[in-house]
Write a structure and sequence with these properties.
Elements (H helix, E strand, L loop, with lengths): L14 E8 L2 E8 L2 H6 L16 E3 L4 E2 L2 H8 L5 H11 L1 E3 L2 H22 E2 L9 H24 L9 H12 L12 H15 L5 E2 L1 E9 H4 L10 H5 L2 H7 L3 H8 L2 E8 L2 E8 L1 H14 L5 E9 L5
Antiparallel strand pairs: 1-2, 1-5, 3-4, 6-7, 8-10, 8-11, 9-10
Helix pairs in contact: 4-5, 4-7
Length: about 300
């Protein structure tokens, strides 16, 4: 005898669950595979293309929808179902199979390596490294991170008393950013930033951030004015006498102090313009300084986010 599937039962295929525990309850939504990451990265914005069913469940596999009172208690009585679904999508844990998880991790890993390889250069030659060299450097950092964790776990079991210098050195290393490999819960862009910070801190290969190419324009009437006490470059803050004098120089002097290498410098009518290369870490300080000293009349334009030299 043939047993027919109940007409009110929906069979879900090609499904990826996203779960979020809130208010002592676990809520689930049924999504299409690969669409969750696209939604989180901003590629996909239409919920209809992400959700298999626009409902919140206590158990998708059992077809048990979440009662309205449970949703109100966990997310607030005025929160709409769409807002609840968006919160689960953004903050929830995605349930995927082992093969999918491996493929996802590999894809994110490749994206991270590509981003890092395009942003870091050899400090001397200013040339980019190959993706393979960046990958090996990250693997080295990952091994160091795992070893460091093991040392931390074993700390306290030894009987030797470390010296003050040894403690200080360990403390400094502990404060450095570390890299332990990619995870599937963060975007490739944010992890690439973490990877760059770790590579620059530990230097398994000589690296530095590729410089930005900027155009700074400023009214000539402001150039010779003395500067107020304001933000200085990180390198300047470490100095005392010399940089103290720079801090009280003219607006032009301070702007040029941010520029590592001047490409062109010219006066066009009542505006002075300089094009040059700036370390990414100094970009924010330069923008704040120009905006503050010129009261919005000066501009800092990005001509190239990362200037690198290709080839051998």
């Amino acid at each position: 005898m043939q047993i027919n599937q109940p007409s009110n039962q929906i069979r879900l295929t090609n499904v990826s669950l996203v779960r979020l525990k809130k208010g002592k309850k676990r809520f689930e939504i049924a999504c299409y595979k690969n669409k969750v990451l696209e939604y989180r990265s901003g590629i996909e914005t239409d919920l209809d293309n992400v959700l298999q069913i626009p409902n919140v469940f206590l158990s998708v596999s059992k077809g048990q929808t979440a009662p309205t009172q449970d949703l109100a208690k966990a997310f607030g009585p005025k929160t709409s179902v769409d807002d609840i679904i968006q919160e689960i999508l953004k903050k929830g844990e995605m349930q995927v199979g082992e093969k999918e998880r491996h493929a996802q991790a590999e894809r994110i890993h490749n994206e991270v390596v590509d981003i890092v390889a395009g942003k870091l250069v050899d400090p001397k030659s200013k040339r980019v490294y190959t993706a393979g060299m960046i990958e090996k450097a990250l693997e080295q950092l990952s091994s160091q991170g795992a070893q460091h964790k093991q040392e931390e776990k074993g700390k306290g079991s030894g009987t030797a008393t470390p010296t003050a210098d040894g403690e200080e050195a360990k403390g400094k290393k502990k404060d450095l950013p570390t890299w332990t490999g990619v995870v599937t819960t963060k975007s490739a862009k944010s992890q690439a930033l973490e990877a760059m910070k770790a590579l620059i801190a530990w230097q398994p290969i000589p690296v530095s951030r590729a410089r930005m190419r900027l155009r700074v324009t400023c009214p000539t009437s402001v150039l010779k004015q003395a500067t107020k006490a304001g933000p200085k470059k990180a390198a300047q803050e470490d100095s005392e006498d010399a940089d103290g004098e720079k801090a009280t120089g003219t607006v032009k002097d301070r702007i040029l102090s941010y520029v590592e290498q001047v490409e062109t410098q010219d006066t066009l009518g009542q505006e002075w313009e300089v094009v040059g290369f700036v370390e990414p870490g100094a970009f924010k300080g330069l923008g704040e300084f120009v905006g503050g000293e010129t009261k919005g009349r000066g501009r800092v334009e990005v001509l190239d986010m990362a200037v690198v030299h290709e080839g051998d």
